[in-house]
Design brief:
Helix content: 40-55%
Order of helices and strands: EHEHEHEHEHHEHHEEHEEHEE
Radius of gyration: 36 Å
Strand order of the largest sheet: 2-1-3-4-5
CATH architecture of the largest domain: 2-Layer Sandwich
Number of domains: 3
CATH topology of the largest domain: Heat Shock Protein 90
Shape: elongated
Largest sheet: 5 strands, parallel
Number of strands: 12
Distance between the termini: 48 Å
Mean pLDDT: 84
């Protein structure tokens, strides 16, 4: 801060006031003077100084009260206050620092000491203002970047939805005609032709599944409903009803503990649990699938777990499973397009939570995710 910084000197003794004022003006500072606490409050309100030199012992309103009032006001609380007083009692000094003072100069004072302390605190104030300005500028930049990123994400979601939606009809036509070719000419052409048509039909079906998955992924936010009180036990009951035929087919056992009621999108919660339980049934081992759903309250959130006894996941692959279109197995071993867990992560994050997995190959997998608790 330059030497022409604005300083307010407050002292009820005119001689002391003149002495300090002349000392500071001699160094090029812009100096104002007040003979009382109320006058100082009015002077600060009229024009904010960069620093205040404040006498403690004054009638009507002492320096401690003046400082307390300034520190209680958001517009003046950052102004550094240096107390100047003949009082040397430690308790009195502590009162000054408690009130918000940054320094204390005893009377009678040495001019060099006053100038040194003034220069130090003006420099600190200048650095503080520079830091606040840089933080404000950086915050503004980050807000602009965040706004731009949000806009880009919205545009990307709209593009993904549009492309996925528009591709469905022509792909449906391609798939239909390929199926007609397969039905009409199966066995009438050579073996290679039958094989090629089979490859084409399979590819069209997988592409259709990928587009359907991408459409579902893009709709997590755009097609979501307002959050409402959602009974997760009821959600799970609906999911198990939807999966009943598959559960019976693979001989699975799905159990759960007490599950909470949350503020959530019920439809997205159903998709979340259905994807996780379907995966547990799909990636099963030699034994019948056993799936367990639990929830534990931790502070202001619920930690859910969906545990299975399936084939498990290698620790170096646990992050990949949540990436769009990432698959850890061949299509022949386990069919799918690698979107289900990406949708799960998107749903959880849209609800303000996080999702991860603990697993070892051959030891099953436990998918865990958090959701905010209701207040």
């Amino acid at each position: 801060m330059s030497e022409n910084a604005s300083i307010l000197v407050v002292d009820d003794n005119p001689a002391n006031l003149r002495l300090v004022t002349d000392l500071l003006k001699g160094q090029g500072y812009s100096v104002r003077a007040s003979l009382s606490g109320p006058q100082a409050i009015r002077s600060v309100a009229a024009r904010l100084p960069d620093l205040i030199l404040l006498d403690v012992k004054m009638p009507e309103m002492d320096g401690i009260e003046v400082c307390e009032r300034l520190k209680a006001d958001a517009s003046t609380q950052a102004i550094p206050v240096i107390f100047i007083s003949a009082l040397s009692d430690t308790k009195e000094k502590l009162r000054g620092f408690t009130a918000g003072g940054v320094d204390y100069v005893p009377k009678p004072f040495a001019p060099e000491e006053v100038l040194a302390r003034v220069h130090t605190h003006l420099t600190l104030r200048s650095l503080q203002l520079q830091l606040e300005q840089r933080v404000a500028e950086r915050t503004s930049e980050l807000e602009a970047m965040s706004k731009q990123l949000k806009l880009s994400n919205e545009e990307l979601q709209a593009f993904a939805y549009g492309v996925s939606h528009d591709l469905q009809e022509p792909l449906r036509m391609v798939s239909r005609y390929l199926q007609l070719l397969s039905q009409r000419y199966q066995g009438k052409l050579d073996q290679d032709a039958d094989e090629f048509i089979g490859f084409a039909v399979d590819g069209a079906e997988r592409m259709s599944a990928m587009i359907g998955g991408l459409l579902a992924y893009s709709r997590v936010e755009t097609q979501g409903h307002s959050f409402a009180e959602t009974d997760i036990e009821q959600v799970l009951a609906e999911v198990l009803a939807n999966l009943q035929l598959l559960i019976e087919e693979v001989g699975a056992e799905v159990s759960h503990g007490t599950l909470p009621t949350l503020l959530a999108d019920a439809g997205q919660m159903q998709r979340l649990f259905q994807n996780l339980i379907s995966n547990a049934l799909k990636f099963r081992g030699e034994h019948p699938p056993r799936v367990r759903v639990d929830a534990v309250r931790r502070d202001d959130e619920w930690v859910f777990s969906v545990a299975d006894n399936g084939i498990g996941i290698s620790p170096d692959q646990v992050e990949r499973v949540f990436t769009l279109f990432q698959r850890l197995h061949t299509q022949g071993d386990y069919p799918g397009v690698g979107i289900g867990l990406s949708v799960c992560r998107r749903i959880v994050e849209c609800h303000g939570g996080r999702i991860w997995v603990d697993s070892e190959p051959g030891e099953g997998a436990t998918f865990l995710f958090t959701l905010p608790a209701m207040e």
